């Protein structure tokens, strides 16, 4: 207070704010870590010897690079897997010692002279057949460059590695293939055939290593050198990954051990929010990345409602969830969006794996969020961006085992080899395991149906593997996607619904496998907060058109009906607010009346004009011939054509990618031919020129 005054004044009042000891914000290191945000993330240099983390290496010119050949590694990646692989490729190439290596995004390369490099290596993923967000400018830059069109990439050697997921059957690896072809057409010389890793399978690492090894040979290394460099790159990766999770004896004083994964996630999100609020440069790429892909706990708003007749052999749940955080999107979701869910392993597999490794379920684990680079496949590892250096969070071993590795997936050959390496006490069985990991044919015949947890259980107590290393070796738990079946106008912009078909089957080892995410969602009860997820938007334009009068042709058999329900809810709300709706025709398919989803709701929508007409294909009704949606499109070709011919008409198709989507497309072409009087080839180009958007997957 000011001397001489009667009462204290607030003039020089200073507040000192301290985090509550043990609270989630009790992270005294934060101030020290902040500067790492301002490091440049642009073109990274990886001149040999390889740095431990290319992500953090600064943009410098190679000191002794003059005599070396130049290699450029480019990546296109939304979720970090291709970026991770690009870094491994860079390490691998740098390990040869002959190259100076730069790593950059494909978009960064769009504005540089890639013809000046000797070797161009690309790792990229694809989203609905399109480029990832940081790769959109690359192909256009090739096609507009006259120089390149004329073959000025002639002196450049190239190789492409694609990441994709065969669940997206029709657009599997589409963008990596386009890049591969474009580079060839631009005159570059192919070093090795395009490599491909299917994230839906268990051979991602094997495919990548095989490609790296042939790349090494093509670059002039002996195969032994190639293998050695691949091994070196792999062991650096494993070490980095393993260091992220460490079982500790006790949680340091003043820190908390999170009771559940959802609590840990909420705590970490809070830390990240505070960091953002601290005013770190908002244009910083890392911050943007941090804010972009975050996962949040979701609340179960209502108990799930069964949509099929009990006992009919199918179960589909109407699940209602509430978003617990405001996003910068207004509203928080849009009809046509997806919800990404991080599932948890079943408790029996979690117990099996922890027991086999001798780790107590309640053991505290230090989770170093800020270490290393991002891992392949999105999952719990990437619930938070991993670049900022934060103090560890403390979580329980059961949550690590629940959310990080995919325990139900069969182990990779490399994982089996490591288990054999760390096992003791049964030499014959271990030798057999080691031999198996080296014999691809026998491996796939023997291991394809054995889950990682079951394999471990066979060696219970005999495998000395750290939790961190085990997680690094396992297939990361992949997120699951669900089409949102509500619209922000119904029920509300923070409550959404999903339409989830339960998965359940008996594995060849006799274990009952209940689909991880579908069971989690189907069983979720109000008050439970263990569902982790986030709204994701498709780049393909799968959303209700702005113009409400545009005619819609909607095809959604089975749970493919989900986004169509969202569209219809949106239309109903628009109609109520006075907009004039164009026609909307829905083709739905199910086996019989027993799994006729949302039958009453659809009847109501037909009655109030939200839906103009509804065609339902029944594929398994006794005494009646099997009918599929494509058959009904053919049978109603005149009506279909009357909408298709309108230039503002949109076609939306959702559901099975393998056979439904191609058959439906064929049926639309046939309708243009039969009812529109076009030749088959004109009908094909007509459908090709329509706004025809698919959201399809292969389960
Ligand atoms: C873009 C997109 C949108 C989607 N939208 C929806 C949606 O709206 N509604 C919906 O229900 N699903 C949807 N899915 C599918 C969903 O994401 C999950 O794949 C599905 O729910 C299964 O996940 P799960 O974790 O329950 O099963 P998992 O534990 O992953 O088990 C499924 C796995 O088991 C295998 N399997 C299944 N049956 C058998 C069997 N008899 N024998 C051997 N193996 C078998 C399958 O091949 C699959 O690999 C969508 C998928 C994508 C990619
Ligand atoms: C919304 C979405 C759409 C996808 N579409 C495709 C696709 O069309 N074709 C494909 O092969 N893979 C597809 N994938 C799989 C991704 O390419 C794959 O997960 C890849 O590993 C992502 O790599 P990234 O982390 O480098 O972005 C899709 C994944 C998501 C989440």
Automatic annotation (TrEMBL):
Keywords: Coiled coil, FAD, Flavoprotein, FMN, NADP, Oxidoreductase. Residues 293-564 form the FAD-binding FR-type domain. The keyword Endoplasmic reticulum does not apply. Pfam families: FAD_binding_1, Flavodoxin_1, NAD_binding_1. Residues 1-68 are annotated as: Disordered. It is an enzyme of class 1 (oxidoreductase). This is NADPH--hemoprotein reductase. Its EC number is 1.6.2.4. One of its GO terms (molecular function) is NADPH-hemoprotein reductase activity. Residues 53-64 have a biased composition (Polar residues). Residues 71-216 form the Flavodoxin-like domain. It comes from Pycnococcus provasolii.
């Amino acid at each position: 207070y000011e001397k001489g005054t009667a009462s204290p004044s607030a003039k020089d009042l200073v507040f000192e704010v301290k985090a509550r000891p043990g609270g989630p914000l009790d992270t005294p290191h934060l101030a020290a870590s902040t500067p790492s945000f301002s490091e440049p993330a642009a073109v990274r240099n990886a001149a040999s010897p390889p740095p431990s983390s290319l992500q953090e290496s600064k943009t410098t010119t190679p000191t002794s690079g003059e005599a070396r050949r130049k290699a450029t590694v480019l990546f296109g990646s939304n979720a970090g897997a291709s970026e991770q692989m690009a870094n491994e490729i860079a390490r691998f190439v740098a390990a040869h010692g002959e190259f100076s290596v730069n790593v950059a995004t494909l978009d960064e390369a769009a504005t540089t002279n890639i013809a000046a490099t000797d070797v161009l290596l690309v790792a990229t993923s694809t989203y609905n057949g399109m480029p990832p967000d940081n790769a959109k400018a690359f192909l256009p830059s090739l096609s507009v460059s006259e120089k390149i069109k004329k073959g000025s990439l002639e002196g450049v050697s190239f190789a492409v590695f694609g990441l994709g997921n065969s669940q997206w059957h029709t657009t599997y690896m589409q963008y990596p293939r386009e890049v591969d072809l474009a580079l060839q057409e631009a005159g570059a010389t192919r070093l090795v055939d395009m490599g491909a890793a299917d994230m839906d399978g268990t051979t991602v690492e094997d495919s990548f290593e095989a490609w790296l090894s042939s790349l090494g040979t093509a670059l002039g290394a002996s195969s032994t050198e190639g293998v050695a460099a691949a091994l070196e790159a792999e062991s650096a990766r494993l070490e980095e990954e393993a260091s992220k999770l460490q079982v500790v004896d006790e949680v340091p004083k003043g820190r908390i051990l999170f009771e559940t994964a959802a609590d840990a996630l909420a705590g970490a999100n809070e830390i990240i929010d505070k960091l953002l609020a601290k005013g770190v440069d908002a244009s910083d790429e890392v911050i943007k990345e941090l804010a972009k892909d975050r996962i949040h706990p979701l609340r179960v708003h209502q108990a799930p409602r069964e949509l099929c007749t009990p006992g009919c052999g199918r179960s589909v749940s109407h699940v209602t969830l509430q978003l617990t955080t405001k996003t910068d999107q207004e509203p928080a979701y849009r009809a046509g969006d997806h919800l990404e869910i991080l599932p948890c392993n079943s408790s029996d597999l979690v117990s099996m794996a922890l027991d086999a490794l001798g780790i107590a379920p309640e053991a505290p684990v230090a989770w170093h969020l800020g270490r290393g680079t991002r891992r392949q496949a999105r999952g719990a590892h990437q619930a938070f961006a991993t670049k900022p250096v934060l103090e560890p969070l403390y979580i329980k071993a059961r949550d690590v085992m629940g959310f990080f590795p995919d325990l139900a997936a069969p182990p990779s050959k490399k994982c089996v080899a490591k288990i054999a390496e760390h096992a003791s006490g049964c030499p014959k069985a271990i030798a057999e395991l080691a031999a198996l990991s080296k014999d691809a044919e026998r491996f796939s015949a023997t291991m394809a149906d054995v889950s990682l947890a079951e394999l471990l259980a066979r060696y219970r107590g005999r495998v000395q593997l750290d939790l961190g290393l085990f997680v690094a070796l396992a297939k990361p738990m992949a997120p699951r996607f669900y089409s949102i079946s509500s619209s922000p106008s119904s029920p509300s912009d923070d409550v959404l619904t999903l339409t989830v078909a339960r998965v359940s089957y008996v594995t060849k080892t006799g274990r009952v496998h209940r689909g991880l995410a579908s069971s989690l969602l189907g069983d979720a009860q109000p008050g439970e907060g263990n569902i982790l997820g986030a709204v994701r938007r498709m780049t393909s334009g799968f959303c209700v058109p702005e113009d409400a009068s545009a005619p819609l042709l909607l095809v959604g058999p089975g749970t493919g009906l989900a986004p169509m329900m969202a569209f219809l809810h949106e239309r109903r709300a628009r109609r109520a607010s006075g907009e004039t709706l164009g026609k909307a025709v829905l083709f739905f398919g199910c086996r019989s009346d027993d799994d006729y989803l949302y039958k009453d709701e659809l009847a109501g929508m037909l009655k109030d004009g939200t839906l103009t007409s509804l065609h339902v294909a029944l594929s398994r009704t006794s005494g009646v011939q099997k009918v599929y949606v494509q058959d009904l499109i053919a049978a109603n070709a005149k009506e279909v054509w009357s909408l298709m011919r309108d230039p503002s008409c949109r076609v939306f198709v959702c559901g099975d990618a393998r056979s439904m989507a191609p058959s439906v497309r064929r049926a639309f072409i046939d309708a243009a031919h039969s009812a529109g009087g076009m030749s088959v080839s004109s009908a094909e180009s007509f459908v090709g020129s329509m706004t025809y958007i698919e959201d399809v997957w292969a389960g």
